[in-house]
Design brief:
By secondary structure, this protein is an all-alpha fold. About 65% of the residues lie in helices and about 0% in strands.
Length: about 190
Amino acid sequence: MTETPARSPAEVLAFWFSLEAPGKQDDPAVRAVLGPLYEQAAAHRLDGWAEAPRERLALVLLLDQVPRHLYREDARAHATDAKAQTVARRFFERGDWADFRPIERFYAALPYLHSEDADKQALANPVIHACAVAIPGLEFMGRVADLYLETIQRWGRFPHRSALRGVENSPEEERYLREVWYPRQRAPR
């Protein structure tokens, strides 16, 4: 089955929220349907979508989630994180996501969860917790949000991304990843 590339915010949202639990298995479909729009968003050609809440959510998905599918385990997966956070900031400032479903609010807040800034992490944490409680099967995300906040407060960055940056972790960071990060990421739900 050939996937048709999305052309509008509504098509981005319809495609994304039709995915059961977006993961590696969806990479080819995400690439086919949203890849071309990601390139436009990354090149600032869709910046006008940031004005209205639903269109802004589509832009956030393109900038935050899509590159993680296009460039899995590659530094390019994080290339538009800063732009996604800038766009997502409007949700936190304006509160114009009040009528979003919890899953939509969750994705609107994810750029802040992916941030290596403690203040953004602190803003995202209660939103992620509220969504985790409201969305069956997503309860574990409250634990993940706490882990992310704790990691940024402790290290000022995500040590698990060091290899993507081409830097080595300190022995303490390696121990943290081995003894805290990975076990808590994989803890039973």
